[in-house]
Amino acid sequence: MVKQAMIKGQCQVSFIKPTPFTILQIFNDPIHGHIELHPLLVKIIDTPQFQRLRHIKQLGTKNLVYPGATHTRFEHSIGVAYLAGCLLKTLHENQPELNITKHDFLCVQIAALCHDMGHGPFSHLFDGMFIPEVQPDDEHWEHEQASVDMFHCMRKKNGLDKEMDRFRLNLDEDIKFIEELILKGQKDGKVKLVFKLLFQHLSGYSWSMKGRTEDKSFLYEIVANKVNGVDVDKWDYLVRDCYYLGIPCGFDSQRLLKSARVCNVNGRKHICFRDKVADNIYGMFHTRYTLHREALQHKIGYIIDVKIKDAFVLANNQLKISEKKDDMLKYTELTDHIFDQILHPSDSHRDLTAAQCILEDIVERKLPKFVGEARLKEDGLREELKARLEEQPDKASRIKVYQEELKNKWEKARIDSPLTVGDFEIHVLEMGFGEVGNEPIDNVHFYSKNDLKTAFKMEKYQIFNDPIQGQIELHPLLVKIIDTPQFQRLRHIKQLGGTYLVYPGATHTRFEHSIGAAYLAGRLAEVLKEKQLKEFKNEQEEFEKKQDEFEENIEEFEEKQKKFKKEKEEFRKNKIKLINEKDILCVQIAALCYNLGQVHP
Predict the structure, then answer these.
(1) What global pTM score does this model have?
(2) Given this model, what pLDDT does residue 282 score?
(3) Cα distances (angstroms) measured from residue 242 to each of 7, 33, 601
(4) Which residues 6+ apart lie within 8 Å of 428 measured at CB?
(5) Which of 156, 187, 328, 334 is most buried as measured by Cβ atoms within 10 A of its Cβ?
(6) CA 157 to CA 49: how far, in whole Å?
(7) Is 143 a catalytic residue?
C-alpha cells in the first residue's frame, strides 16, 4: 500500500497571504498531513449543513464488508478543497500569465468543499437505488443539484453572504461560478475545433458558462473534470478510499499535481500534464477500476445495499424519507442515523416492524446468498438487443434493458422449479477505467519538457498488468496479434505442462510467458539500440573531425579523398546496420509467437 509519507503533500496555499483578518486554520488530515484552510472555508465547515457530512459515510455500507471503511464525506470534502488550492497554487506560480486571482482561489476551493453536501444517507445508495424506486418520475434529481440547494440554504441560514462580501467576493458572479463548478464543470470541453467554429458561426457563441469567461476555462476542470476525469475529487477519494480499505494505491497524486500546466487545445485552455507522468495517469484509472472491482461493487456489499434500500422503502411512508430531499432544513437532519432510527424506532414510529426486521437481519448477518455472475460482451449480443441499448439515453436505462433480458432468459430456462424471477435480485454492472466504452486517457493532453506550450495526446499503447514485470506497454500491432484466436489459444497451454499436478501453484500459461518475452525482447532491443546510437555518435564525431582535417590539408587532397571515400562507404554500411523500429517490432513479434506451436503435454 502507498505509505503515508508518500501520500502526504507539503503544499500550503500561500497565494492568499495571511492578514489580521485571514488567519489560516490548520487541520491534521491522515492523508495529506497538516493542511491550512482559509477562514472563509472554516466558516463554511462550522455550519450545521457541512457538519452533517460527519454522519454520511464516504463508501456507504462498505464498512459492513471492510471494517476500516468508516471515513466520511466530511474529511473527503476538506481534502478535495485542500488539493484544489494546491493545484491552483502550482498553476499560479508556474504560469502567472493565467491571471488566477484570489477570488478564483476562494471560489474553486468553496466549490470543492461543498461539492458533496447533497449526498443522502449511505451516499450513492440514496440517490442511485432508493430515490429511483420510491420516486421513479423524478429522473432528473441528482446529488449535485442537492449540493447546490444545500449551499444556498447554508448561505441563507448562517449569514455567509456577509462573510463572502467581507473577503471581497462578487456575490452575483462568484456564486454563479461556484454553482457551475459543483453542477457540471466544463461540460462542453470536448467540443472539437471544427464543430466549435461551426457552432460559433451558427449560434454566435460557444462558451456556455456564466461565472467566468472562456480564458478561465481551465478552472472548470479542477473540481469535476468532465473532459477526461482527472480532477482533485478523484485524487482525494482514490487515495483516501485505498488507505481505509487497505487496498494498494497505484498512483501518486502529488506527482500529477506538480506536473500540471495549462495549454491551448483547439482554441481553449485545458489542464495538461508532463508526458513522463502518463504511466501515473494510467495508474490512477487502474486504481479506480481496482477499487470498484474489489470493494465498491463487492457482491456482499451490493446485497446489503439492496436490503437497506428495501428497509428504507418500507419505512418511507412513516418517516417521509424521500420528501426530505425537497426541504434542505429537513434534509440537513437526514444522515446515516436513519438506519438506527428504523432499527430502534421511537414510540411515535412503532409501525416499522417489517423494515426493522430487514435491518436486524443485516446486523445479525442473515443475508441472501450470492448465486453467481456472468460477464457479458456486447459484441455477442443479438442485433435487436444492441439496437435497444443504443436507443437508451443513459446508463440506468441500459441497465434496465439488461435486467429485462436476463429475466426473460430465466423464465425460458426454468424447468419445474418453484423459484421465480421475483426470488432473485439481478444486478447489472458496467465497469471500465472511465466512461464505459471509452478510454479516459484518450482525452488527456500532455506537454513535453522541450515545448511547454504545445499540447498533444499520448500515443496509445496497451497496458498489461503482469505479476512478474509489473505494468508493461505493448505496441498496438502486438496487441492485435494477442487478440487473435491463434494467440488466445495459449491461455489454455500450461507453461510447465502437468507440473501443476505436483506443484499446485504452477498454473501459469504460455500466454503470459509470451507477452513477458515480447516485453523483455523489446527492452533488450532498446538497450542495444541506445548502445549502437552511442557508438554511432562517436564514429560520427570522429568522421567529422577527419572531414575538417581533410579540408585543411588541401595539398594531400587526392590521397585523402580516396581514403575518405573508403571510410565514408564503411560509415554508410555501418549506418545501414543500425537497429531500427521495424527490427525491434519483428524481434518482439517473433518472441510473442514462438510458442504458438505448443500443444498440450
Answers:
(1) 0.73
(2) 86
(3) 11, 16, 42
(4) 399, 402, 403, 406
(5) 334
(6) 9
(7) yes
Tell me how far the alpha carbon of residue 574 is from its chain's centroid.
48
Query: What is the helix (H) or strand (E) element at residue 473, kind and residue range?
Result: strand 470-474
* pLDDT at 188 (0 to 100): 46
Give the pLDDT of residue 32. 95
Q: Which CATH class is domain 463-593?
A: mainly alpha
Alpha helix positions (H), 184-327: 193-203, 232-245, 253-259, 278-291, 299-319
Specify whether the backbone of 168 is left (phi greater than 0), alpha (psi in -120 to 50) or beta. Answer: left
DSSP E strand stretches across 13-55? 25-29, 33-37
| 367 vs 133: CA distance, rounded Å | 21
- For residues 121 and 335, give the distance between their C-alpha atoms in angstroms, rounded to a whole number: 5
Give pLDDT < 70 ranges for the chain. 1-22, 139-140, 185-205, 376-384, 393-396, 413-416, 430-439, 460-463, 551, 553-556, 575, 600-601
Spatial distance between the Cα atoms of 110 and 105, rounded to a whole number of angstroms: 9
Q: At 139, list the grid cell.
A: 429522473
Over residues 283-311, the pLDDT tens digits come to: 899 899 889 888 988 889 999 999 999 99
Q: Are 186 and 220 in contact (CB under 8 A)?
A: yes
Instruction: Report strand pairing: 268-274 vs 445-448.
Output: parallel
CA dist 209 and 111 (Å) reads: 15
- Topology alike, domains 4-302 and 463-593: yes
- DSSP string for 564-576: HHHHHHHHHHHHH
Residue from 192, 257, 179, 266 nearest 220 by CA: 179
Number of H helices, E strands in the chain: 25, 8
The pLDDT, as a whole number, for residue 471 is 75
Measured between alpha carbons, how far is residue 275 from residues 227, 237, 254, 279, 306 in Å? 18, 24, 15, 9, 43
- Residue 355 is predicted with a pLDDT of 94
Which of 32, 119, 143, 475 is the catalytic position?
143
Look at the domain 4-302 and name its fold: Hypothetical protein af1432 (1.10.3210)
Q: Which residue has the cell 447554508?
A: 154
Specify the residue for cell string 513479434: 589
**Closest to 459 (Cα-Cα) out of 293, 590, 581, 288:** 581
Which residues are CB-contacts of 495 (< 8 A; sequence separation ≥ 6)? Answer: 506, 508, 509, 510, 513
